[in-house]
Amino acid sequence: MRETVGEKIFRIIVLAGLTVFVAVPLYVMVTTSLKPLGDVQAGFSWIPSRLTITPFIEMWSTVPLAKYFMNSLIVTTVATLFSVGVATLAAYAVSRWRFRGRGPFMTTVLSTQMFPGVLFLLPLYLIFVNIDATFGVPLVGTRIGLIITYLTFSLPFAIWMLVGYFDGIPRELDQAGKVDGASNLTILLRIILPAARPGIVAVAIYAFMTAWGEVLFASVLTTEETRTLAVGLRQYATQTNVYWNQVLAASLAVSIPVVVGFLMMQKNFVAGLTAGAVK
Amino acid sequence: MTSLTAPEGTATPPKRPDRPTPRRPRHHLFPYLIIAPAVLLELLIHIIPMATGFWMSFIELTKFFIRRWTEAPFSGLENYRIAVDLNTPVGQELLNSFVVTLAFTALVVGLSWGLGMAAAVALQRPFAGRGIFRTLFLIPYALPLYAAVITWNFMLQRDTGAVNHVLVDQLGLLDGAPFWLIGDNAFISVVVVAIWRMWPFAFLMFMAGLQSIPGELYEASAVDGASPMRQWRSVTLPMLAPVNQTLLLVMFLWVFNDFNTPYVLFGTAQPPAGDLISFHIYNASFLSWDFGVGSAMSVLLLLFLLVVSLVYLYFTQWKKEKNNA
């Protein structure tokens, strides 16, 4: 099928327009992070007067970036691991058994996705405060509270996506395992998980991205000691002098791991969406 | 696979069997066992807080009662009355925030839909460099939200930002450099930033959807002499209907609930023109420490979203059934 002239013009206009729209902020982010502070404060210029990596060095001492980075890394990694584990078990149950409450479980899990974070925030904050007061389990201001919260946030999408993946794995494989005397857990670990690896990877990336970028709960549930990047990066701007080159250097540095991870796995992600939403 | 029809009471695990039969009850218990962690977490983080939030909206939960909330006096519908009383600043600001959010949602969802669709269609045919565009377009979605919004915040600075540099210095479109993060312009800013973040998601979903459209459909319609525009309307759009149905609802809910974009863009000093509703409720609760009124606003927001979602699902499903009939 030949492409018409009209289609070609449409394609060029759309791609050129969107490329400018997407690329300009990315360009500003990268070049500003390589500019000396004097350049940034003197007014905007597209071409830096000179390139310097000092913002990438100084950003560590202007605010305790390393501490925020570690907090984010710990909270996000632990939340991701548990989220994938919990979602895998739940998706296995939903995909392989017709148990009582299966339908309501899926409906409830999916509908929680709909509701505004701010709706959970106030009560959750109060519940955490009161659990602390009653049972002495510190959930406000600690990493544990944030981990539990984040891991639950990625559960609905993770379960939904994994059920789609598991449903696509033929049950004959389970049966063959059963005949060989394998337990349910062995079947999950040895048969289902290897076959669903792209789905697991996609879910892990989604959980990581969700926790890494979350702002609202981090701003309320953390203290100076447990502050994550999402909140910590704002500190560059609360100083009397805004170190824009360092802010953007730090933003760039904390973005690279997630962006690279996502772009490497985008095929899995699209495949997972196709398995779930599109059908 | 074993189907579970036996009543729950029989599910006591027996001693390790010498006979083969007692294996069955273990199957009954197993799915509940492995789904339990997910259920517990959902209860702790979503379900119980939601129920608590509902209850909180009926009590006088000011700063004084935060640590002794069981003693907070019941106040009936008082919190709701305060929230929607249009004769007071609280009610007027909530109404303003609701209107701003409606306009924001319509613009962001509509334009993100259009851009996502245009990009997906433009990249439908294979050509050299297609992968590069696809990767580039997905970056705004992959970036952590705060990193993206901080960059925009810098670009929108009055004196040192790229936006005024282009509009005033380079193109000369405006006489004086305007503020973008305070005043009425704040609305334009938050809309543009939200679209920048949101449209790649629409693009991603449409791309996934387009992959499942068989090429023969286009060939057949081309033989019939259909123009590209006609093909889009008669082949692409109907085939994307299932994607569209999910996408529009999900985008509506996300955009309407968006807290992070205004929070990172404006800080806690929100301009009235950019006072989106989640952000408004947050400020109303945490700046005044009146959680009762904040909860009442949350419940009202939830009711609104629920009604819109149900109406939407009712009409889309109804249309689908009518088409099938």
UniProtKB/TrEMBL annotation, chain A:
Domain ABC transmembrane type-1, first and last residues per copy: 69-265
Keywords for the protein's UniProt record, in alphabetical order: Cell membrane, Membrane, Transmembrane, Transmembrane helix, Transport
Pfam families: BPD_transp_1
Coiled coil: none
CDD domains listed in its UniProt record: TM_PBP2 (cd06261)
Record flagged with keyword Transmembrane: yes
Subcellular location(s) of the protein: Cell membrane
InterPro entries: BP-dep_ABC_trans_perm, MetI-like, MetI-like_sf
UniProt KW Membrane keyword: yes
Membrane-traversing stretches: 12-30, 68-93, 105-127, 147-166, 187-209, 243-264
Matching Gene3D superfamilies: MetI-like
UniProt record, GO biological process: transmembrane transport
Location (main, coarse): membrane
A GO cellular-component term linked to this record: plasma membrane
Signal peptide span: none
Membrane topology category: Multi-pass membrane protein
Family affiliation: Belongs to the binding-protein-dependent transport system permease family.
Protein's recorded name: ABC transporter permease
Species per Swiss-Prot/TrEMBL record: Brachybacterium alimentarium
Automatic annotation (TrEMBL), chain B:
Superkingdom field: Bacteria
ABC transmembrane type-1 domain sequence ranges: 98-312
Subcellular location: Cell membrane
This protein's GO CC annotations: plasma membrane
Region (Disordered): 1-24
InterPro entries: ABC_transporter_permease, MetI-like, MetI-like_sf
UniProt-listed SUPFAM superfamilies: MetI-like
One family name in Pfam for this protein: BPD_transp_1
UniProt key word Ribonucleoprotein: no
Membrane topology of this protein: Multi-pass membrane protein
UniProt similarity note: Belongs to the binding-protein-dependent transport system permease family.
Name under which the protein is recorded: ABC transporter permease
Source species of the chain: Brachybacterium alimentarium
